[in-house]
Amino acid sequence: MFKIITLISFITLLSHIPLSAQVQQHTPAQQVIIEKYLNKSAYLHHYTSHEWTDYINAALGEDSTIALLWHHKALPFWKTMRYEMALASFDKAVQYSRKEYLARRGFLKCIFQKNYNGALTDLEAAKKEFGLGYENDHSYDFYIAICHLQLGKYAEAKRILLAEIERTDGRPSGYTPHYLELFFMGIIHYELRDYDKAIDYFEQSIGKYPQFSDAKYYKAVCYLKNGEKEKYHTLIREAKADYDMGLTISEDSRFYEQYPYQVNWAMVQLPK
Predict the structure, then answer these.
(1) What is the pLDDT of residues 129-146, one digit of tens each?
(2) Which residues span the domain enclosing 237?
(3) What is the value of pTM for the model shown?
(4) What's the structural domain count of the chain?
């Protein structure tokens, strides 16, 4: 009897969980729409084409509750820097499949829109509701630390990113920090004006990615801050040579957006 009551209570509990808190499961009717308008139509065109948008809109005309369609409607807007239009659609994706798209929206706000307070709200909510996860190969805490860095909250950024670098839970045996985690720890120490510590982290990052132009640039600047002009002159030229070969931040999104602290060489005056 107890088992029956417990099962009924569990089913009742599930029935009160908002559908948006789960990953959306498509009904047979929705699968037909996806097959017709995505697999056999939109996916045959580039996502920035008029045809892509026309097919997505036609599909939404048949069922406006499919989160995947709203995600796809937002896609060309993200990639063409029309962020308000992107969010108007992506918010609908979050509405209908919150678990699937909430953290993704936080990532997009951080890297694309540069809305760091908004990104923090989404990423912290996703972490609280669904646990620590990943977007584009980095954990939510990585992006949370970047947000704090970009908001000038260096101590908080340092605390969160250091914990991420030292985290062992959920890591494979022998895991070592990603070169960007080490790079941004260097940036945090650079902003804190601890140039020796910044140099140490930039060296670790370069050890992972030997021709990483951005890390070499900031390491060179730290040398200059420490009065080591010859080291600065040598390394800044080396950094520019690496950049000229396309060796900068290697994240997929770099093709669409400038990452925080990615060097804009148009503003750099090289020593003569």
Answers:
(1) 999 999 999 999 999 999
(2) 205-272
(3) 0.89
(4) 1
